[in-house]
Amino acid sequence: AAAGLSYVGAYVINTYKSYDNFLQDKYALLPAMIIICVAVVMFIIGLIGCCATFRESRVGLGLFLAIILVIFIAEVSAFVLGFVYREKVKTDVQGTMHSVFEKYDGKNPESAVVDYLQEQLHCCGVKNYSDWTTTQWFNSTGNNSVPLSCCRQDMKNCTGRLDQPQEL
């Protein structure tokens, strides 16, 4: 269980690195850090539980049960916090994404992150491709199109033009 939790926590932190431009609030990693800390504690407590079992110590096993209950409460708390703050995180991410999309010029590092995000998540814009119509990049290009990273991967001749939304 500790190894599984460690993997989940590390995966969340590693995934965060790809999207850190969209998450201004560094506390978004707090649940992942809690999970990793709980995993380390679970490993140590598991060793204590094994030793108490081999010695057949009632006090050791009682202590082991109490600690496992505390860990369970911590995990439930992390889940509840994630559930309660999901709307705040969603709002913060959307606001930050809109500001990153506004800075898009096709050349700067934020542009590369936007292109990567759209290609990986198979999406276009914050909510849909029409989000691009309000950006400075869209107005400056004057070709009525969105970045090529909005194109569906199975469309080989996609130009990103808005008059062909089936390709986006």
TrEMBL record:
One of its GO terms (cellular component) is plasma membrane. The keyword Transmembrane applies. It is found in: Membrane. SUPFAM superfamilies: Tetraspanin (SSF48652). InterPro entries: Tetraspanin/Peripherin, Tetraspanin_EC2_sf. Pfam families: Tetraspanin. The chain crosses the membrane at residues 28-54, 61-85. It is a multi-pass membrane protein. Keywords: Membrane, Transmembrane, Transmembrane helix. The keyword Membrane applies. Gene3D superfamilies: Tetraspanin. This is TSN36 protein. The gene is Tspan36.
